[in-house]
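Q: I'm writing up a methods section and want to include an example of the input and output format. Could you take the sequence below and give the corresponding predicted C-alpha cells, formatted cleanly so I can copy it straight into the document?
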Amino acid sequence: MASFRLSDGFLLGAATAATQIEGGDSNNNWADWASRGLISDGSSPVRANDHYIRWREDVELMKSMGLKVYRMGLEWSRIEPEQGRFDEAAMAHYREEIEAVIAAGMKPLLTLHHFSNPLWFEKMGAFEHDDSVAVFLRFAKAVIRGLGDIVSEYITINEPNVYATFGYFYGAWPPGHKSFKRAMRVMSRLAECHIRAYEMIHQVRSNMGYDDSKVSFAHHMRVFDPASPGNPIHKIAAKITARMFQDIVDAAMMTGDFKLPLRRPRDIGRGRYYDFIGINYYTRSTVKNFGDGVGAGVPINDLGWEIYPEGLIRCADSMYKKYQAPIYITENGTCDNNDRFRSRYIFEHLQQIAASDLPIERYYHWCFCDNFEWIEGEKARFGLVHIDFETQKRTPKRSAEFYRRLIEEHGVDEELYSEFAADQVYSFNSSSSGGE
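A: Here is the clean output for your methods example:
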C-alpha cells in the first residue's frame, strides 16, 4: 500500500549542525582542515549557508514547513573562542535563536558536540589529552547554565564512532591520524564525556528547578550484513565489524559497560546514562572482510550508499531490546543532488516506522537545508531546502512540499504518494564491494 498513518503524538522535524550551516567561523578544526585543501570540492565551512546571519529567514522557512521539532547544534569555538574565555555575545545569539525556534512552534533538541572542536582544543590534542573530559564538561556546563532554562533536551555527543573512526583510524577527517589505539582512546574519552555530561545536565537543571531533562547521544548505526549469508568468513567479519563500530560504543555510552578494547575510567560504574535512544540511520554495509561495502544491484543514493529502509527498524529494534526506552530518529536522509528520489526515500523510511510497534516518537530529517557536508564539502546535497552557495538564496525543493504535506496530514495517502513519490526511481549499484 502506498500510504501510511503515523501514530498520535509522533513528531516530525529536521536536524542541522552548526559547523555545517552557520559560516563565518574560522576558529575550528574543520575550517583549518579546509584551509589545507583537504575538502574534496575545495569548499570550506567558513562559507557554508551563512545561517549565523540568516537564521531568522531559516526559522521562518522551518515554520512554513510545519516542523514540530528541530535538532540544532552549537559552535563550541564561538562560545569558548579561547580556552577558559566564554563569549557572552555568542551565548546571547544562541538564546535569541532558540527562543525564535520555540516561538515558531518547534521544540529544540540541542547538540553540544557535532564533530567540531575549537582550534585551541584541537591543538592541545582534543580528546586524546588527559584534561579533555574536564575541558569539555566546563563548556557543557556553561551551555546548560546559559540555556538550561529554555532547553530541556540534549544530545551530548553526535556519532562518537564516526568521529573516532574517520579522524583517528582512517585519517580522512581532522586530525588525520591512522591508529587503532588512538581511535579507541578517543572513543573511550567520548563515552566518558557523555556519561559525565549526562549526570551534570540533570544535576544543574535540577538545581535550577527543572525535572524534565532528557539527555542521550546520537548513535550512528548501520546494518552490517554478510555479502554471502552462507559464507562463514563473511558472517564473522560482519559481526566483528558491527561490534567494533557500534555495539561496544552504545554499551559504553548508554550503561558504562566499557568492553575491550575500550578502557573504563576508574570512577565510572555501570548505570543508565540515557533518557531516550537516539539513532542516526542512513544505510546498510555489505561485508566480506572488514569495513564497509555495498552489494551489487541494490538501490543507491548520489554518494553510492545503499538505500535500505528496512534497516532503520532493524537498528531501532536491536537498540530497544537492549535499552528499553523511547526512540528518536535523530537523523535520517539521503544525498540526492537533484531531488529526484528524496520524497520516495522519506516515504519508505517513515512507512517502516508507521508499521512498527517500537516506541519511536520522533523523526528528524537530515538535513533541513543543503550544507557543508564535511569531507564532501558543498557537492553532496541532503537538504529539503536548496542552497545556492554563491548567492545564499534559499529555495524549498519539491520534497520540502511533500514533507510539509506529510506533517500536515500526519501520514501519506494514495493521492499524496501519487503526486510526489510514485514516479521517483533510484539508481542501482552495478558492482559489489564488501569491505576492506
